[in-house]
Amino acid sequence: MKDYPSKKEAALVMVFTFFLLLLIDGLFSESISKGRKEGLLVEIFVIIPALVFVYKKGYPVKKVFRLNKVNRNIILYSLSIGISFLILSEEFERIVRMFFPFPEGFSELEMKMNELFESNNLYEVLILFVSGVLMAG
Fold first, then answer.
1. What pTM was estimated for this model as a whole?
2. How many beta carbons lie within 10 A of that of residue 19, not counting itself?
3. Rounded to whole angstroms, how far apart are CA atoms 50 and 37?
4. What secondary structure, in 3-state letters, does the chain show?
5. Is-contact 13 53, C-beta < 8 A?
6. pLDDT (tens place) for every residue of the chain, 137 residues total
């Protein structure tokens, strides 16, 4: 028994996933275009076809998705590097804005983008966490 799918099988799963996302985007396009956080849950449907395929074919899930234990030091290093890059990118953005201010219409777009990632209650925090952290990983 093979431990990994073939390139052809992986390509078919990717094509199926792409068309599934197009379908779901069409169904939820109103909530996505209005900036609702539920639109972010569409990301969950990226992993579902791959999971179903792996289970049906009997491949080892841990091996296919590389679900290995992570050393605590790696987590700490990743967090410190991530936070450092976050601070540096914010400061770099401020410096760039001083020399190259954005056009008038851009600030409206930026405000709408920021609203998409704001949370006002626990439900919205949960949606942002699931869609932005777990599914991105």
1. 0.58
2. 10
3. 24
4. CCCCCCHHHHHHHHHHHHHHHHHHHHHCHHHHHCCCHHHHHHHHHHHHHHHHHHHHHCCCHHHHCCCCCCCHHHHHHHHHHHHHHHHHHHHHHHHHHHHCCCCHHHHHHHHHHHHHCCCCCHHHHHHHHHHHHHCCC
5. yes
6. 678 888 999 999 989 988 887 887 777 666 555 555 556 666 677 788 889 999 999 999 888 888 889 899 999 999 999 999 989 999 998 999 889 887 777 777 777 777 777 777 787 777 777 766 655 55
